[in-house]
Amino acid sequence: MNQGLRRMKIDKEQFLTVLIAVFGCVVTFSLNHGAIKINGEIYYLPLKLGAVAASALIGLIGGFLFRVHAAVNHSASFAGMSAMIAIATTEQSIMVGVVVGIVYIFLKKMFGGVGGKLGTIGMISTLIVATILLPFNSYSHCDFAAWTAVTPTLVIASIVTGALGSVVTLAVREQIVLKTFKSNDAVIGSAAVGLIGSLLLPYIPAVGSALSLVLYEGSFAGMSSRKRLSGYPAFLTAGALAGAFFAAIFGLFPGCGGKLGFMAFSSVLIYQYGLSRLTPLRNASST
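The chain above was modelled as a monomer; its predicted structure follows.
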């Protein structure tokens, strides 16, 4: 009897996880593109926020409202950042949201404290659906022409911006969010930095729009726990590496939501298991 009730509770929790993932993905996708596209009909919304602002806003709202489910909402919002070449309709965004919820349930206890994990879940889920729907969307997993937009200026600016996004997020988490709200510091901190960046950085000539993405990407590295990145030098390095990844794989998985998180996730792991053992930063970061 008790086992049956416990199983029912678990199933209800998992259903809620998937439901919130669908919400996060669909609402972000709609605000991202300023439209709802259902059954071939397009219904335009009064707001078209763009990818970063839409994800950051939904992540911020979820950080305050959803408590234990804030993370899966944030993860789904990354999938909702997808361009229409990857997710073409609202119905497809619902499919992606369902997959995000399922993948999140399976990976919830893995890679704890690694920043970018939520985005990686969003990217995996988006690619699963985009690949299944290849006969309908004709999604290309690589755009070689995109690399022509990568200039030395963009590379340097991306490295600096990624590092900045990481350390600013850590500071916001520890000095503001934890002291004020005492929960969901990683989600709220990242979303706040991303939202502010989406409002300010696009005004920078030539590279501003790209840097708003990179700042948000750096904020994902800044979501890491101190067990993964022990101090500011470590967060700075992981964020800079994430910025370098932005330029290096610029044309890979074009328009795929969660790609920024995947690059941050990779950067944190590379630093923790590679760079930190080769440089004195590990010792310096403990001071």
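The chain has one domain: 2-284.
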